[in-house]
Amino acid sequence: MDNTGQKKILVTGGAGFIGSHLCKRLLERGDKVLCLDNFFTGIKANIKDLMSNPNFELIAHDVTLPLNLEVNQIYHLACPASPVRYQFNPVETVKTNVMGTINVLDLARKTKSRILQASTSEIYGDPTEHPQKETYWGNVNPLSIRACYDEGKRCAETLCMDYHRQHNVDIRIIRIFNTYGPNMDINDGRVISNFIVQALRNQPITIYGEGSQTRSFQYIDDLIDGMIKMMENTDGFIGPVNLGNPSEITIGDLARKILELIPESGSKIISCKLPEGDPQQRQPDISLAKEKLNWEPKIKLEEGLRKTIEYFKKEIWQNGETKN
Fold first, then answer.
1. Distance in angstroms (rounded) separating the CA atoms of residues 101 and 109
2. For residue 6, how many other CB atoms are within 10 A of its CB?
3. DSSP strands (E only) in the chain
4. Residue 3's closest CA among 56, 72, 82?
5. 33 has which bridge partners?
């Protein structure tokens, strides 16, 4: 922190969907933001409007390589987050979660900065507990095609705890449940972006199996609120803590809801084979977030979907099929 009280904050994966929203929010409150990304899945257009801000600095760097920066806080978000992306190069996904996390923890140790680890609901695997509390250890297949992400994130949490215990690193751990909103990659393969884009293109909406599996979706603004509250809490609460929306919906009902919100679409819903390791239920218990952070999501699904649909309409009909 400089003599004006301005914080210097590193956001790894800062050009990604969540990272770009976080960078914008931190800049709006007056922080200096170092956005680190290797653009494996990050998108430069996500941060285009931030580049002219004198408090914003873009660092093109792979987090699996050592870091030498002066910072006060670290939000560690770097890692592909959708199955399509993290399964494309599973070895690199594991390296990002393990070597990348070691590098940012070493930086936090050296600079005595607080670090927030963006973990995931995927550490619960295909849960046998419903809804999922932070005390649940999960049901993960370490040999599945999803394990590069699931086990990688579990190891990252272990590393955070070990650095905390062994080196007294000031850590925070959040577990992010399904999040959606503007700046999602049009081709990332996640369910809400898939359904919206398919509906806007009048393509069949593809659900896996019968669509009876459930998910809980939070809008990006709610997540950013929770992340900042967790980073800034001064009660010694390190987590892990679930950040998600406990309002549960089946995938089939989600597809029908999106079609209702895009009445001009001619898309029909079709069923595809269920992918390996796809969880049947996913719903966060957010009692701990309410208690420790005074946080809970505020934006209803329909409101968030409308905002996200407008974003993708602009992407598809005005700016072409993808962002470069």
1. 12
2. 13
3. 8-12, 32-37, 56-60, 73-76, 114-120, 171-176, 179-180, 205-208, 214-216, 218-219, 241-243, 248-250, 269-272
4. 72
5. 9, 56
Contact 33, 74 (CB under 8 A): no
* Residue listed under structure tokens 């089939």: 252
Q: Would residue 236 count as lying in a domain? A: yes
Task: Output phi, psi for 73, to 5 deg.
Answer: -140, 155
The active-site residue out of 75, 86, 149, 180 is 149
Residue 82 lies in a domain: yes
The domain containing residue 66 runs over which residues? 8-180+218-246+281-298
Query: Are 323 and 277 a contacting pair, CB within 8 Å?
Result: no
Q: How many domains does the chain have?
A: 1
Q: What does the pLDDT look like over 190-221, one tens digit per residue?
A: 899 999 999 999 999 999 888 888 889 999 99
Q: Calculate the CA 268 to chain-centre distance.
A: 29
Q: Which tokens in the block code for residue 211?
A: 């669509």
| Within a domain: 319 | no
- Is-catalytic flag, 136? no
β-pairing, 214-216 vs 248-250, is antiparallel
Which amino acid appears at position 62 of this protein? D
pLDDT classification of 322: cutoffs 50, 70, 90: very low
What's the CA gap between 64 and 78, in Å, rounded? 10
Read off the tokens for 14.
Answer: 């800062």
CA atoms within 13 A on the CB side of 183: 24
**Residue 126 gets which letter from DSSP?**
S
pLDDT in tens, 56-95: 999 999 999 999 999 999 999 999 887 788 888 899 999 9
pTM equals 0.93
Collapsing DSSP to helix, strand or coil, 283 comes out as coil
